[in-house]
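Dear colleague,

Thank you for sharing your sequence with our group. We've completed the structure prediction you requested, and as agreed, I am returning the results in plain text so they can be pasted directly into your records. Please verify that the sequence below matches your submission; if there's any discrepancy, let me know and we will rerun it promptly.
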Amino acid sequence: MDFPYRSALIVGAGPGISASLARALSALGVEIALAARDVRKLEALVESTGAHAFAADASDPDSVAKLFDQATERMDVPEIVVYNAATRVQGPLAELDPAAVQKALAITAYGGFLVVQQAAKRMLPTGRGAILLTGATASIKGFAYSAAFAMGKFALRGLAQSAARELGPRGIHVAHFVIDGAVRAQGRKEPPDKPDSTLDPDAIAQAYIDVLRQPRSAWSFEVELRPWVERF
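Please find the predicted structure tokens below.
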């Protein structure tokens, strides 16, 4: 089956899952737009994929609306929109800075709402598109010293559920991914006695691609991805 989408916008782009997904989509002939607060960190990825890069603050409504306008002007309405932005604030509840928690929630959850809203406005007239939201273990399990992150990811999952029930019957595929484990990175080495004990970002990207290929008669809403050593 030919790949069903021609353009994609990835919000919260960075060197991990976003970069792997951008490369995978580009290899399928999809035109890519990447959004981040600091686009300088995307230079190598832009060069290797030919992607467009836009500076944006996912927690600001005007910035998000401008981002979608810019992406649409450059490559038409994005048919795939991916939300990967998040911020961690960790520490004992009694010691957390309320302002830092507020900012974390604004990026992890409120930013997701802003992006999904702008995507829906543009996808509904055509009755097609895909919105992918990246969650974490914290989407379904709150850990000690990680209340702010759990609050944001729980909210993002709730947004995904509501959006899927509202937009799915109107032709827009909404999917939420629970990344249940540590993602492999340049500075994160695996223990030699536990190969593949972290998630390979290229393998995660392939899971996203597989979901995007699904026929609408059998759409997935939520996919949990974990390394083979991770406990359920």
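Summary note from our side: Residues 47 and 53 are 10 Å apart (CA to CA).

Kind regards,
the structure core
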